[in-house]
């Protein structure tokens, strides 16, 4: 019986095989980011309001800022869990003046940046969308001052924009 010789592909062939593998991985990642359908949570109490707090994925290319860091959500001093990267929470609240604080000053949080605070007025039977944005601040990142710089903030977002963005965001616990 003859022995078959193992033939090792040439460098250009190996490089082409590597490119095909890399392209396959990228295509599979693209499938994972397809939009989902966002279905609003109905307001249970007729006199209550609904607040959606969402943290969309960062828009910068490459590594994502504070991917594994998450603050605790405090609304009018009451904890509503943590908000992770690419996640949203539907929180039913009593209408009126509302203070949302995202903090790392709790045992549940894994967050080092300063607290972020936003005040808003909630109205009975209405829904508000509050976007928590975390991005790299590319304008302030310098070679002589290494380390990441962030843009962190919250803003009220129109329902038409928020519901489109939330199609790409996972529902939190």
Number of strands: 9
Number of helices: 2
- The fraction of residues assigned to DSSP E strands is 25-35%
Terminal-residue CA separation: 63 Å
Largest sheet: 5 strands, mixed
| Total of domains | 1
- Portion of residues within helices: 10-25%
Please provide a written account of the structure.
With 173 residues, the chain is α+β, with helices and mostly antiparallel strands. It has one domain. The chain is built from 2 helices and 9 strands. The strands form 2 sheets. It has a 5-stranded mixed sheet, with no helix packed on it. The chain has a 4-stranded antiparallel sheet with strand order 3-2-5-6, with no helix packed on it. The protein is elongated, with a radius of gyration of 22 Å. The mean pLDDT is 82.
List keywords for this structure.
2 helices; 4-stranded antiparallel beta sheet; single chain; 17% helix
Summarize the structure.
Helix content is 17%, strand content 33%. The protein has helices at 11-32, 159-165; strands at residues 49-55, 72-75, 78-82, 87-93, 96-103, 116-122, 127-136, 150-156, 170-171. A hairpin with a 2-residue loop joins β2 and β3 (78-82).
Layout of strands and helices, then pairs:
Layout lengths: L10 H22 L16 E7 L16 E4 L2 E5 L4 E7 L2 E8 L12 E7 L4 E10 L13 E7 L2 H7 L4 E2 L2
Parallel strand pairs: 1-7, 4-9
Antiparallel strand pairs: 1-4, 2-3, 2-5, 5-6, 7-8
């Amino acid at each position: 019986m003859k022995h078959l010789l193992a033939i090792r592909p040439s460098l250009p062939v190996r490089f082409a095989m590597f490119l095909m593998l890399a392209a396959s991985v990228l295509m599979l990642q693209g499938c994972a980011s397809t939009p989902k359908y966002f279905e609003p949570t109905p307001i249970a109490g007729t006199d209550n309001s609904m607040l959606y707090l969402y943290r969309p994925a960062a828009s910068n290319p490459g590594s994502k800022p504070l991917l594994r860091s998450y603050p605790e959500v405090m609304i009018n001093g009451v904890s509503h869990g943590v908000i992770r990267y690419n996640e949203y929470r539907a929180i039913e609240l009593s209408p009126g003046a509302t203070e949302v604080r995202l903090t790392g000053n709790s045992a549940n949080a894994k967050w080092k940046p300063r607290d972020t605070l936003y005040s808003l007025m909630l109205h009975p039977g209405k829904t508000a969308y509050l976007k928590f944005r975390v991005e790299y601040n590319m304008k302030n990142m310098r070679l002589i001052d290494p380390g990441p710089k962030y843009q962190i903030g919250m803003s009220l977002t129109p329902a038409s924009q928020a519901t489109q963005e939330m199609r790409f965001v996972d529902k939190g616990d």
